[in-house]
Each structure stands twice: as C-alpha cells, then as structure tokens.
Amino acid sequence: MVDPSRGVLFPSRLTAFHRYAPPPVAADLVQWFWIPEWDLEPGVVSRQTVLSYPALNLVVEPHGVSLVGATTRMSERVLRGSGWAVGALLRPAALGTLTSDASSLVDVEQPFSAPTLHARVVAAMAGEALVGEPGAGPEAGVPVAGQVAGQEAVDHEADAPADRHDHAVDIVAQWLSDRAGEIPSVARHANMMPEVLIGEGGANTPAEAAVRLAVSLRTLQRMTHRYIGLPPAAIIRRRRLQEAAQLVREHPDVSLATIAADLGYADHAHLTSDFRTVLGFTPSGYRTESS
C-alpha cells in the first residue's frame, strides 16, 4: 500500500483517520479503504485539505452514497459536529460496474443509488448486529464476517473501533465483488496502471509507463481516459506533486532546489509553478504553514 501520509497536506489537522488494505474478495477492485470519524465540540471547525489520488472513490456517509471522481486540484472539506465516511479508492477494474464514463466524473461528486449498501454500512458503523438477507447480490444483504484473513490495517490508533470498521469494509467489499462479477482480462490489465503511474518508483513519463505496461502510448492514453478520466501525464504530475509536498513538509532541512532535482523537476521554478497552479501556494509558504 502507498504511504498513508501521501496526499494529506496537513496531517496534524486530521481527525481520526484510518486506511485498510482490501479483503481478498475485493483485491482486484479496491486499492484501499479509508475511514475518517469525527466528533467536534460545538463551534469547532476542522478543515481537511487533500491532494487526492487520481482515481474514482465510492463513498458511503450517513446521508447517502456517492461517486467521487478524480480531481485536478486540491480539495478541502470543512467538518463540523460529528460524522464518518467509509470510502473505497477504486482500482480500474471496478469502474465498469459503477459508471460508463470516468471522464464525466472528473472534479465531480455524484449521488449513487445503493440503498441496501447504505443501510448496512450505517448499521455497521453504529455497531448494530447485521444479518444477511435472503438472496445474494449487489443490492441484497451480504453475510458479515469478522476481519478477513490477510486484511492489513494501516494508520490505526490504539483505540480505533476496529470491529465496526472491519464490518463496514467487509460489507462494501462483498457488495463490490457481487456487483462486478467476473473481471474481464482487459480490466485486469488496466489494474496495472496505478502501480506504474502513481506507485512507489512509478514511471517518470507517459512513454516510460507505456513501455512498462507493454502498450502503445496511444493505448495508454485511451486506458487512462476510460478508467481514470485524466491523461497519463496529469496522473504522473499528481504523484510527483504529492511526493514533493510530503518531502517539503517532512524534511524542513532539505532545500527546495534539492527536492525539485530529486523528483525530476527542471528546476526550483517548475516546482513552485506546480505548487501555485494546483495548491494555490508556494513550496516555501506550504513549508511554513505545515510546520
């Protein structure tokens, strides 16, 4: 799993936040699950600022279910009161079961009708007993298991409500698996893209990514448009900017010029330009604010 702190611009401001590796039943459909919870005092506001991964998310919240597309800019959510979300960062193979056009969801959050999924996740997050309903299927009840063998918890706090989270993750994982059915070979091939484009040691150029995936550059462009909604160059730039933000924040003694060179930027000015365009502030300003 990718470093949990990547993409989170101000980790010190986060409420309780957990990432989980997918259970085996959804390993081809989900990169990881993420669950934030918050319970803030009256009048207290928490601003969550994220440079998201370029992928589609399925998100279940108390008020409903939504699809959240890849983003082209920094996003911020203001939290008040109490609440939670159960999110699944989806792999390309899951896209065809939820939408026919990933590009139409870029920078968009769209309601998604899945009433049974919603009811069961709400019950799980409330700690209520869950009972499978007759008839398996994407909108039928699913059996609730404990933590699936091989499931890995990342960024747990000592008092994390693991049982509720495990139930919620299992429910979403099984629902996605039932809905997806047999995964076509072309979708399995597309599942290699996240590792090549945004994984550790990812490709530095679209041409390099195409070679690693054993496809033409034009085919790679069609794949990222279909499954992510963004061109491969934009996806690579997002990974590089996430890495730059993490290095700027976590290594205050390393010069910005060194960080720019290490990540393949032409110079410090290009790093600053990327920061200004996507994040709205300079690397030095970000370093000061995040310290």
Automatic annotation (TrEMBL):
Keywords: DNA-binding, Transcription, Transcription regulation. This is HTH araC/xylS-type domain-containing protein. Residues 208-289 form the HTH araC/xylS-type domain. It holds the Pfam family HTH_18. SUPFAM superfamilies: Homeodomain-like (SSF46689). InterPro entries: AraC_XylS_family_regulators, DUF6597, Homeodomain-like_sf, HTH_AraC, HTH_AraC-typ_CS. SMART domains: HTH_ARAC. It comes from Acidipropionibacterium acidipropionici.
